[in-house]
Amino acid sequence: MNFIRISRLRIAGLALVAASAALTACGGGGAPTTATAATAPTSSANAYTGPAPATADVQAFAVNFWANVRVQNRCGQCHNATSPAQMPNFARSDDVNLAYAQANTVVNLEQPSTSLIVTKVSGGHNCWLADPNACGEILTTWISNWAGASVGGTGTQVQLVAPPPHTVGPSKNFPGTSTDFQTTVYPLLTQYCSKCHAPDAATPQPPYFASSDVNQAYQYAIPKMNLNTPMSSRFISRLAVDMHNCWTACGTISTDGSTVTPANSSAGQMLAAIKAFAGMVTLTPVDASLVTSQALSLAEGTVASGANRYDANVIAKYEFETGTGLTAYDTSGVDPSADLTLSGSVTWAGGWGITVGAGGKAQASTSSSKKVHDLIEATGEYSVEAWVAPALVAADKSYMVSYSGGDTLRNFTLGQTNQNYDFIMRSSASDLNGMPQLATPTAAMVLQASLQHVVLTYDPVNGRQIYVNGQSTGVTDPQKGGTISNWDDTFALVLGNEVSSDRSWQGLIKFVAIHDRALTAPQILQNFKAGVGQRFYLLFNVAAPTGVSQGYVMFTASQYDSSSYLFTSPTFISLDPAVKPNGVIIKGMRIGINGTIPTVGQAYSTLNTTVTSANYTAQGESLSSVGTVIAIQSGPLTDQFFLSFDQLGSKTHVTTETAPIPIPFVPGPVVSAVGVRTFAQINSTLSKLTGVPTTNAAVLQTYTTVQQQLPSDPTLESFSSANQVGVAQLAIQYCNAAVTTPALLQKLLPGVTMNGSLYSTQAGIDSVTSALAARVLGTGLITQPAASTLTGVNGELDKMITKLCTGTAPCSGNVTRVTSVTAAACAAALGSADMMIN
To answer: With contact defined as beta carbons under 8 Å apart, do 831 and 710 qualify?
Structure first.
């Protein structure tokens, strides 16, 4: 076997009982158990009075695993030493050492996710939540914490396992139209499933494979059907195994798994319909001249998720594995679970994640969120870690992760302002809203509309820091040295918005974790390299064409979203540790799916490399550093992948690329080459011109009020009079703040003093108009307004000041009037087209 990393050896102080010992339900007999309500534990175990832990490993077991499972509404209700004393009794409370010996029969400290107790509970055995997978993840966390404490580390090791051999052969692919589906499977779905699985149902439940729109229904139904082996269809197992919503007898699957009996049962009727549909689809042949690897599906890969993450101090974690319903579970294993309730425009994304639309959010209760306050205040430091893919790069003050009480009160927030990540945090050095915020450098534009790993860390010595994709963004926190003793424990944790629902963020969230320690730079890089989501190491067998014993081309693959797979890190590797390949030529590699080779997404078609013994290590030899995306066809349960090569070893097959069909150019409407600044740019520009921060209370209130009225489209043709009114209101507020603040006034109007005689002379008027003209006008432009002519900027501002200072409210001797007129002149200059044109 080959290991991605060197596997640790655990020397147990107690002999291990046979690992095949089975977990059964209370009372024996192996009867299935059902899930309990999705709540935090309501009872606790009795205080322990038995023998002390015999070894350090037993102590690690007691603290990290045993204390969590022995409560009565978890494993302690059955696997105890009293009643019913169900074996293995790893949750017994009388002797931690005996419990430890029994636990070793159902756990795997090398690969916690493969532990017997995990697979059993993930399959539905006595899960204390509504989602067995969530219980399985929590158990995996407890076992991982035990393993990490035992050996002083937290890395999860991944052992590569050779997949079953499959020859690439012809396959049936789903037609591009729903015609055949409409006459075979669709009638059963609309007749018996439309009460739930349709968007217009009384209680709509996705996926909408029973939609009245047959094309929509077809797209949702494709992942539930297998045209090559209809018996493997999810529709069949849902009826025959899960007994879900059967309209007649559900039916049973035959012993050999080849059919359903009786034929007229619900599952039997569905099987006949899928077979009829499959019979209308012709096989897609495979070109016999291709040089190919063997084939495998996503599920036949080695699970890579969470490999070598640093999770020693996680207090809340969201992996979004559930995929259905309105609850995203906290799988940190730290009670109480701060589970999130999905509301508004939030949908589950394929490959683990949620997609947040306008107005949507995922929020925990204030009571369960309190643990975040309590545990972080105890350490005085913390980290917020997220894998996110923003949908917009023009988004102002939208929040991804927030622990807050509304738009003006918070403990911390990870936010977005255009292409900046924001770190807002309450401390002794900030106001109660966490201002001023820390932001990534605007010029760097680190926030991109792609999947990114973002980490916020705080400790009193270093203050706030922001990391993106494993690297520090280099921003320095002026608030370092503060404390967080003023945090509020009545706030709630929320993703994708503010608790008050007025800071909507849009995009994909695939992972969130909160740590009660500040992660170090190496730990952050470690978690970035570990990746995110449901990932697999896919081992494509190429032993025959290369002559390398147990030779494979390995990819890290995952379902990127609901419509595509992500393939990264192609590596040539042998699972035979005695082999060191040399001279293996690899050219023109392409990824095939279901017997066909897609024309798009072939990032490795230009690959030209040779595997050498000099570059080969125990982890193989990397073939490329780029990744690619391949479209989903049938779905992750049934799609089968293979690799094709122009040359592999001595085998060759040169692929001739099909010439692309030229797309005729259709000119759009003629628009001006000159544009206007949009809302966020206007706000930032006025702040820069006046020196007034965007966080100024009066400015922020005005901006929030008129933001929707400011330009959102940068084209000159879209600019309206309503936009100009909004600009004028905001400019007035900025200028008023500038002229009434002495320090800012001197930067805006050097040498000018607000007194009653300022506008009594032409020199006084000129000192204001010339400073404003210099502030707003550009230099070195081909065309620009004149500053000093009678009809130029100075002249127009002169006329304005003179007119405002005469009549019923003269300026002479009136400081208040002088200040108001100066602010008006400032707003006229800074809110003009000179500022607006971009």
So the answer is: no
Beta bridge partners of 629: 566
What is the predicted pLDDT for the residue at 211? 93
Between CA 23 and CA 79 the distance in angstroms is: 9
Q: In this predicted structure, what is the pLDDT of residue 251?
A: 94
Tokens encoding 315: 């207090």
The pLDDT value given to residue 3: 41
Structure tokens at 120: 């059993």
Query: Given a cut of 60, is residue 236 above it in pLDDT?
Result: yes
Beta bridge partners of 610: 585
List pLDDT tens digits, range 414-456: 999 999 999 999 999 999 999 999 999 988 999 998 889 999 9
Are the CB atoms for 712 and 395 separated by under 8 Å? no
Question: Are 304 and 531 spatial neighbours (Cβ–Cβ below 8 Å)?
Answer: yes
Any alpha helices (H) in 11-131, and if so which ranges?
56-61, 67-69, 96-103, 116-122
Q: Which residues pair with 347 in a beta bridge?
A: 355
Type of residue found at 677:
R
- Are 327 and 38 within 8 A, CB to CB? yes
Q: What average pLDDT does the segment 777-801 reach?
A: 76
Structure tokens at 222: 């494709």
> In the prediction, which pLDDT does 5 show?
36
Provide the β-strand partners of residue 424. Answer: 413
The DSSP result for 58-84, as a single string, is HHHHIIIIIHHHSSTTTGGGTSSSSSS
**CA separation for the pair 796, 787 (Å, rounded):** 10
Q: Which secondary-structure segment (H or E) carries 507? A: strand 507-515
Distances (CA, A) of 492 to 37, 129, 371, 372, 401: 22, 21, 10, 9, 11
DSSP letter for 723, please: H
Establish how many alpha carbons lie within 13 A of residue 397's alpha carbon, considering only the half-sphere containing its beta carbon: 20
The strand pair at 260-261 and 452-459 is best described as: unpaired
Q: What is the pLDDT of residue 808?
A: 76
Residue type at position 461: V
Let me know: does 598 contact 661? Beta carbons within 8 Å. no
What is the number of other CB atoms lying within 10 angstroms of the CB of residue 358? 13
Strand-pairing partners, residue 495, are 362, 401
Helices (H), 222-286: 234-240, 266-279
Flag the least confident range among 18-22, 552-556, 726-730, 805-809: 18-22
Give the E-state strand segments of 542-671 in sequence order: 551-561, 564-574, 584-593, 608-611, 621-622, 628-631, 640-648, 651-652
Q: Can you tell me the mean pLDDT for 16-33? A: 34
Rounded to whole angstroms, how far apart are CA atoms 302 and 537?
Answer: 5
CA distances from 795 to 588, 762, 766, 777 (A): 69, 12, 9, 14
Closest CA to 709 of 694, 729, 692: 729
From CA 137, how far away is CA 822, in angstroms rounded?
64
| Per-residue confidence (pLDDT) for residue 389, from 0 to 100 | 92
Q: How far apart are CA 367 and CA 146, in angstroms?
A: 28
* Measured distance CA(501)–CA(301) in Å, rounded: 41
Residue 149: the pLDDT is: 64
Q: Do you find a cis peptide bond into 84, omega within 30 degrees of 0?
A: yes
Which amino acid is located at 775 in the chain? R
Helices 679-690 and 721-739: crossing angle in degrees, nearest 10, is 30
Tell me the pLDDT of the chain averaged across its residues.
86
Q: Which DSSP category does 171 fall into?
A: B
- Residue 113: exposed, middle, or buried by beta-carbon count in 10 A (0-12, 13-18, 19+)? buried
Q: How far apart are CA 151 and CA 153, in angstroms?
A: 6
In the three-class reduction of DSSP (H, G, I as helix; E, B as strand; rest coil), residue 40 is classed as: coil
pLDDT in tens, 46-62: 788 889 888 888 888 98
Residue given tokens 């396992």 in the structure block: 161
By the 8 A CB rule, do 512 and 455 touch? no
**Tokens 């993703």 -> residue:** 495
CA–CA separation, 162 and 576 (whole Å) = 11
Report the length, in residues, of the chain. 838
